[in-house]
Amino acid sequence: MAGINALRQLFRQQTLQWLLGVGRVWSWLSNKLSQIDLFTRSFLLLSALMLASLGAWVLIFLSLEMGPRAAQMSQRIATSVNLTLAALTYAPKVERRELLRTLSLREGLDVYARTGLDMIEPLPDERYWQRVAKLVRAQLGEETMLAWSVNDVPGFWVSFRLNNETYWLAFERHEIRLTGGIEWLSWGAAALLLSLMGAAIGVSYINRPLARLARSAQLVSKGTSPPPLPETGARELRALNSSFNRMARELHQANADRALMLAGISHDLRTPLTRMRLEIELSNIGESGLQAIDQDLAQIDHSLAQLMDYARPANPEPPRAINVSRLVAEVTERERCLTRHAGGTLTSHITPNLYAQISATDLRRVLTNLVENARRYGLSPSGIAELEVRLEGSNHSLKIKVSDHGPGIPAHDLERVRKPFWRGNYARTGASGTGLGLAIVDRLLQHMNGVLTFSARPGGGLTAQVEIFTDQSDG
């Protein structure tokens, strides 16, 4: 009883392991299929269905061909045996040798004397050959012997009796067997090729409008106006392209109206600010009062600039890749001077000759905001901004890291700092700002196929990392 329970337990474990293995294989296969494009997935699906249909058709055809061909071949064998037997029966014995020679040359019928010493190989245990043998015996008699080879001579051998003498009548196998070999291979290859070509053409016909729509949607997401999609083809595609074209026109008009509105707001607000600065400079207010008012006006101007940056759309992608290393070096050098003027330090480690097809203006805004944010909120305990900018690259992405020695950001606030007008507790109490710097960075990175992440810096502080994917499939 204990042995039976152990076997059951072993069987359960083996079954569970097998199911887990199947689940892992299926999960891996599903993950791989989800990573390939729509055209390849549809082509593989249609190809698999066509191949399955072709295989089923071949099996059905072979099954339907077997019965009629077996009956036809058995009738041919029986007729040949009967004709040979009749010819030998009515021919004089002296002429039988010449008759057998004539039958062999003209009709391909080889007749041999059968002896008890013949080495006989039986027919193969295959459905078709056994069915032919059964039908031959039904017509010639149950005592008829059939062989696959006699005395190591291959063929389809059938025995018959003439008076007291027994003979073998040998047939070529290829004349009796089912259609196959090179013929079936050629027809199957032709059918397979036509099926794959049909699948490729059909999938391409369906996928081409969707690929065109995807490219246009990508251009819209980057702030570029795509050319209108053709409103032709199937009814659903016409409706889809028409709706997309209307949406693209409305977005373009909305962006144009927003740009005009922002220009108006900037002009209407900054002109009074400039006039106020001039009037304050000409007034009799004391030095401390002038400095306080000037700081307030500077803060208003900075907030206005941040609001304009956040509302301004991203720049379109340039036609060619730019030298990111050179651009980061230029921005870093400018920010180093500003940091030194504020009493801090900024070091940099830039990998040379890194290129990417992204907007130089947007990347400059991203890096400037990150460094300014670190300089403003990432002060060390001694009140000094100690910053570091690092640029690294790989085959698929570029990484820009801006690190500081400040108090960092609590884990529960890491996602909130991306939101507009939200600032951490330290930012509220230790510095002034609009809370739009990181929101602007996050918004621009969405158009640059990049992501913004935060991590604790070893030794204290915060590292803001920008990763820009140069390969679209990695984003």
Describe this structure in words.
It is a single chain. The chain is of the alpha+beta class. The protein folds into three domains: 32-214, Sensor histidine kinase RisS, periplasmic domain (Beta-Lactamase, 2-Layer Sandwich); 222-313, Signal transduction histidine kinase, dimerisation/phosphotransfer (DHp) domain (Helix Hairpins, Orthogonal Bundle); 316-474, Heat Shock Protein 90. It is 59% helix and 14% strand. The chain contains eleven helices and twelve strands. The strands form three sheets. It has a five-stranded antiparallel sheet. It has a five-stranded mixed sheet with strand order 7-9-10-12-11, covered by helices on one side. β4 (153-162) and β5 form a beta hairpin. It is elongated. The two termini are 59 Å apart.
List keywords for this structure.
Heat Shock Protein 90, 3 domains, 475 residues, Beta-Lactamase, elongated
Summarize the structure.
By secondary structure, the protein is of the alpha+beta class.
Mean pLDDT: 77
What percent of residues adopt helix (DSSP H or I)? 55-70%
Contiguous low-pLDDT stretches (5 residues minimum) are 426-431
Sheet of most strands: 5 strands, antiparallel
Structural class: alpha+beta
The side-by-side strand order for the widest beta sheet comes to: 1-5-4-3-2
The radius of gyration computed from the alpha-carbon positions, rounded to a whole number of angstroms, is 44 Å
Strand segment count: 12
The oligomeric state is single chain
Number of domains: 3
Number of helices: 11
What fraction of the residues are assigned to beta strands by DSSP? 5-15%
Distance between the termini: 59 Å
CATH architecture label of the largest domain: 2-Layer Sandwich
CATH class of the largest domain: Alpha Beta
